[in-house]
Amino acid sequence: MTFSANLQLSRNISSKDKNVIVDEVIDQLGLEKCADSKVGTEFQRGVSGEERKRMNIGMELVLSPNVLFLDEPTTGRLYSI
How crowded is the C-beta side of 34, counted as CA atoms within 13 Å? Predict the structure, then answer.
């Protein structure tokens, strides 16, 4: 989520503030236990499928969108405005 925040949030927002935003989203989504874990790849096991889905939602929430459309959130499709 930090990587996503650094890429997508304004450069006017300090790194410290970006980290605060990410930490708040991690707390909101209950991802504290896997906050420093690698997501994983097809070759290396990472976080669980449920944690991966919540992390995908969190990557959008760090942007503080006005609207977040979740089209079957268990499939991982997210649309934000």
Answer: 19
Range of the domain at 70: 2-80
Count of helix runs (H) and strand runs (E) in the chain: 3, 2
Tell me how far apart the terminal alpha carbons of the chain are, to the nearest angstrom. Answer: 18
Extended beta strands in 17-76, E state: 68-71
Q: What is the pLDDT of residues 43-60, one digit of tens each?
A: 777 777 777 788 888 888
Instruction: Report the number of distinct structural domains present in the chain.
Output: 1
Q: pTM for the full model?
A: 0.73
Answer whether 37's CB lies under 8 Å from 47's CB.
Answer: yes
